[in-house]
Amino acid sequence: MPAPAPGYVVLLPVKPPARGKSRLVGIEPHERADLARSFALDTAESCLAATHVSAVLVITDDAYFAADVARLGAAVIPDGVSGDLNESLVQGALEARRRWPGLRPAALCGDLPALRSADLDAALAASEGAGPAYVEDAVGGGTTLYTAPHDLFRPAFGPGSAAAHRAGGARPLEGDLHSLRHDVDTLEDLEAVRRFGLGPRTALASVRVGSLG
Length: 213
Ligand SMILES: Nc1nc2c(ncn2[C@@H]2O[C@H](COP(=O)(O)OP(=O)(O)OP(=O)(O)O)[C@@H](O)[C@H]2O)c(=O)[nH]1
Ligand SMILES: C[C@H](OP(=O)(O)O)C(=O)O
Known about the structure:
By secondary structure, this protein is of the alpha/beta class. It has helices at 29-48, 63-72, 85-99, 117-126, 161-167, 178-181, 187-193, 200-208; strands spanning 8-14, 53-60, 75-77, 104-108, 133-136, 143-147, 171-172. It is an enzyme of class 2 (transferase).
């Protein structure tokens, strides 16, 4: 009989919304921050609703955002190394291991405002097994999810991250996983994910952005 699937702790890094999502151009700074914050809260909520997710650990240096996401039920820690996403994820994984020793870490981008819990569950179920695994983004070349047992956890997010994860021994997860592959960097990306169903905060925030209406 196969061993039972491990539960996962999602590590969700979120740049302070007032500084993140700089490629959302042509809107006011407060509108960009409102969208960035909404993307991350909707992503967190979808993670918390996933069957294979037993905990969500948000990594952020924004105290206001930390309070908002904690109200949803996520745990929160600050960046381990400010400005270094991958090192902060490594430190987040160490903290996750201390808090939840039985859970496998999965790093997920916080800009998936149309994420469906079913897609996340499908990816996590498919990542069972010994080695690291990742989900390539819809554009190609980037990564939206990376998971590995603690001893092999070496995230390499950033430009060319899919190739970097592959070079590090991770296997790409196949399948549609549409809502999980579509991270939102631009307003065009936001339009593209509407067909999957925007999370509630993002839907409202996009109505508040007059130029999107
Ligand atoms: N905690 C933390 N999260 C980060 C950091 N850099 C990026 N992230 C998060 O990692 C995920 C992927 O990053 P990007 O798509 O590059 O997001 P971004 O930096 O807000 O966007 P751009 O300004 O367009 O580069 C998003 O959830 C970001 O909020 C960091 O230094 N610390
Ligand atoms: C974090 C990065 O995402 P992007 O900035 O390309 O959305 C990646 O794909 O590794």
